[in-house]
Amino acid sequence: MFEAHILKKRERFTVDVRLSCPAGELLVLTGPSGSGKTTVIRTLAGLERPDAGYIRYRERYWFSTEERILLKPRQRRVGYVFQEHTLFPHLTVAKNIAYGCRDPRRVDELLSMLHIRHLARSRPHEISGGERQRAALAQALATDPQVLLLDEPFSALDGGTRALLRAELQRLQNRLRLPVIMVTHDADEARQLGDRHIHLCRGAAAEPAPRENALPLLPAASSLPV
Prior knowledge:
The protein is α/β, with parallel strands linked by helices. It is built from six helices and eleven strands. 27% of the residues lie in helices and 24% in strands.
């Protein structure tokens, strides 16, 4: 189980979010622009420091104000896929995946898993946007992460490519059995992919506009028990 309670003061509101995501499930964060979604996912990755709260994978704290723990990003074993890929432009797809790979033998496995073996010797500018995101996902998985974080990874792609990558993500989720947390603006994407759903408004869980087949919300955050 991956669990967190994030408190982070922003200019106009305080992000106050509780979340939990078991292995093999996908938690979706939705909400309008500026509602705190990216703040939450960046604090989970260690790219921003919460003001208070905790982040815990199983029994190990990554961050805790009570326990005085703050692990650096490289200590957290997180795979992070951004909206815009972070591939090195001068490296081939295979070498991008190998760059952060704990086990070099996994490069071929990940190329096959993401169906990009034929692109192994290509550079990022030579392949399509969807192929770059597949390579970025393989790069994130190469670190052998305990948790996978996705910050609007498909939003810059056309509808057909998004649909293909959604299906690919579902397949990977079933195979890898990781806790996956994903930020999206796309309500259809949230309904299709999410096992759990938090809709943020000004940093807190809130009811979204009613939609058919909407996912259940997790409880809103309460005061910090520290």
